Amino acid sequence: MPEFSELEIIDGCCAGNRTYQEFLYRQYHTEFLKVCMRYAQDFQDAEQLLQDGFLKIFHNIQKFERKGSFEGWMRKIMVNTCLDHLKSKSFKDKRQLAFISDLPEFTGHPCDATALQKIAFDNLVAIIQSLPPTSKAVFNLFVFEGFSHKEIAKELNISEGTSQWHVNNARKNLQQKIMEQNKPTEESVRNYGQ
After folding, report:
1. How many whole angstroms separate alpha carbon 141 and alpha carbon 167?
2. Which of 18-22, 23-27, 54-58, 127-131 has the least mean pLDDT?
3. Residue 125 CB: number of other CB atoms within 10 A?
4. What digits encode the pLDDT tens for the residues 149-181?
5. For residues 111 and 74, is the Cβ–Cβ distance under 8 A?
């Protein structure tokens, strides 16, 4: 497939040209799938969120004002697609929302940055996906998307304190799971030094 400039891609997609739409999809598929994986329960959910996000991009591409980053504009649509899913009735029926007043005080330690560097991206995504749904969503918004606790509280209809608790809870759970993965086995200890 030939290379196109960003302007050609935008113009082609605005015209509904399938060649440009396919090129744009292929160019950003992997990157945006990673975004969706952080919010989804599993790979199938992530694929569905990705498809929904690209449909919104193609449907609204005429609204891109050609100011700022086109990739950033598309990423915002992907994140909003994931947030819309989190706000949906079907997701709300599945999740368990914890309120700060019902939860024990967080007494964990900050996550060790060196442990995070040792983990492959796929393992990290799997660990993040294993978090409780609300903690996962809040953690992703705070850490990866740069939302403030105030913005998260507004988006997910929770208090700022609950948002802070979920970030701390996610960090504690991630740290524990990372440490468990990096824990030496008896066999590796026996073989050490041989």
Report:
1. 9
2. 127-131
3. 17
4. 999 888 888 899 999 999 998 888 888 887 787
5. no
Closest CA to 9 of 76, 50, 64, 47: 64
pLDDT score, position 24: 95
Of 6, 26, 28, 29, whose CA–CA distance to 18 is shortest? Answer: 26
Indicate the pTM of the whole model: 0.63
Q: Report the helix count and the strand count for the chain, using DSSP H and E.
A: 11, 0
Distance separating alpha carbons of residues 194 and 192, to the nearest angstrom? 6
At residue 92 the predicted structure's pLDDT band, cuts being 50, 70 and 90, is low
Quick one: average pLDDT of 77-101?
67
- d(CA 170, CA 139) in angstroms, rounded, equals 6
Cα dihedral sign, 172-44-30-57: negative
Query: Which amino acid type is present at position 64?
Result: F
Residue 26, C-beta contacts closer than 8 angstroms, at least 6 positions apart: 1
Contacts of 132 (CB under 8 A, 6+ apart): 95, 96, 98, 169
- Are the C-beta atoms of residues 58 and 21 closer than 8 Å to each other? yes
Which parts of 88-120 fold into alpha helices (H)? 89-94, 113-117
Residue with token string 């939302």: 147
- What does DSSP assign to residue 4? -
pLDDT confidence of residue 186: 58
